[in-house]
Amino acid sequence: MENSTQSNTTTLFNTDFCLQLTNQILENEASNGSNFVASPLSLHVMLSLIAAGTKGQTLQQLLHFLGSTSIHDLNLLASKIINLASPAENLAGGPLLSFVNGAWIDRRFTLKSSFQEIAKTSYKAELKSVDFVAKAEKVVEEVNLWVEVATKGLIKQLLPARWPDRETVFVLANALYFKGAWDLKFDPSMTQQRDFHLLNGQIVQVSFMSTQRCRRRLYRSFDGYKLVQIPYQSGQDARKFSMYFFLPNKKDGLPNLIQMVKLNSGFLNQQFKIGLENMSDFWIPKFKFCFQFEASETMKEMGLKLPFEPGEMTEMVERGNSDHGLYVSDILHKSYIEVNEEGTEAAASTAVRGPRSRASIPSQSFVADHPFLFMIREETLGIIFFVGAVLNPLLDA
Q1: CB 297 within 8 A of CB 39
Q2: Reported CATH class of domain 13-180+288-355
Q3: 3 state DSSP class of 203
Q4: Bridge partners, residue 218, by sequence
Q5: Reduced to 3 states, what is the DSSP secondary structure of residue 144?
Q6: What phi and psi values does residue 367 have, to the nearest 5 degrees?
Q7: Do domains 13-180+288-355 and 188-287+362-390 have the same CATH topology?
Q8: What is the phi/psi pair of residue 268, to 5°?
Q9: Where are the domains of the chain?
Q10: pTM for this structure?
Q11: Cβ atoms of residues 36 and 383 within 8 Å
């Protein structure tokens, strides 16, 4: 099932920074016992759109962190990703998938024609002129409704009520939606309550899914963890999506697994050389939760600082409008995921605010009865759509 001949897009789509960012936040949340989910793809495309509005050292820093050599290559890659994530039509039998971008610009400012062209062609972004001075609350409602519609109601209230203020010049946002059915569905009649071991030693009763005994699954055992790959139905769709479950061997092994991922660049992008194995004991917990975080401070700690300082974000609006210096003040990211017997439904949205200065033979077992990592990846291009961790399947259910 593994694809060893992936497109050059894989090497160009450098998720390292966005994966390191999400891993850093995951590490903090794991110590609090919180579930976590985020979309590296959503974050990557948003940072790419920010890069399209910058120049000089700020642009070079963004290119460095996004693993690209030029803004042209970055825009071309963004276009490929958006076409992959939001095709002209969802083909029969494949996952339902959509990805949209939007930009809300204060009416006091005029977009540069060059940025406008890039936003429309490469990012397929909706561009809207709004009034942040007198109607900020209405703009918040508009953006939140846009996100809610784009994510089929899964993500509500992305922007806080008072997020934009009189100094806000722009809000950039995107919204990603995914719904895939398992290629081999779980049997609802076999779903049962079983023990799930939390990191603090407590045990909770959770609904676990399974299939007929000795069903062959894509599985491999590594040093310290086991891995199962569960493909989604593809039908006539050339894209091939799978969900991966990374289960530590030890009940309290998630922190060590997080460190392994953190210290090994490209860990989640690799080809795992998984083989079909008979599963004598196979149980995956059902879960459903939402997670939101503000990313700007973590990005600064990781070295991406210049976009958050006034100076070189001059390629978005006409000069005269931008004499005071535009910059990014906040980056909000919110994701949702539900995993059940039928498949997976997931969504993510990222918003940026920019003010002016004053943003085989033996049988194996796989029983996910303790905290684990997961990801959803498109196999033909190797692009990671979602990553996360389940520490307690009951949280936010």
Answers
A1: no
A2: alpha beta
A3: strand
A4: 229, 276
A5: helix
A6: -120, 100
A7: no
A8: -80, -15
A9: 13-180+288-355, 188-287+362-390
A10: 0.91
A11: no
Beta-bridge mates of residue 219: 228, 275
Neighbours of 79 (CB within 10 A): 16
Structural contact between residues 267 and 261, judged by C-beta atoms closer than 8 angstroms: yes
Instruction: Give the whole-angstrom CA distance, residue 385 versus residue 13.
Output: 12
* 41, 67, 232, 332 from 298: Cα distances, Å: 17, 18, 33, 12
CB count in 10 Å sphere of residue 139: 20
- List the structure tokens of 132: 């942040």
Determine the Cα–Cα distance for residues 34 and 374; give it in Å rounded to an integer: 14
d(CA 109, CA 131): 10
Contact 243, 193 (CB under 8 A): no
Fill in the DSSP letter of residue 394: T
Give pLDDT tens digits along the chain (397 positions): 334 334 444 444 556 788 889 888 988 888 888 999 999 999 999 999 999 999 999 999 999 999 888 999 999 988 988 888 887 676 677 899 999 999 999 998 999 999 999 999 999 999 999 999 899 899 999 999 999 999 999 999 999 887 777 788 999 999 999 999 999 889 999 999 999 999 999 999 999 999 876 678 899 999 999 999 999 999 888 889 999 999 999 999 999 999 999 888 788 888 888 998 888 889 999 999 999 999 999 999 999 999 999 888 989 988 665 455 789 999 999 999 999 999 999 999 999 998 876 544 456 789 999 999 999 999 988 899 999 999 999 997 5
- Distance, in Å, from the CA atom of 354 to the CA atom of 326, rounded to the nearest integer, reads 6
Tokens matching residue 320: 């005269």
Spatial distance between the Cα atoms of 246 and 353, rounded to a whole number of angstroms: 35
Residue positions counted in the chain? 397
> Position of tokens 């276009």?
79
Residue type, 125: A
Q: Which fold has domain 188-287+362-390?
A: Alpha-1-antitrypsin; domain 1 (2.30.39)
* Amino acid (1-letter code) at residue 110: T
Cβ contact 124:82 at 8 Å: yes
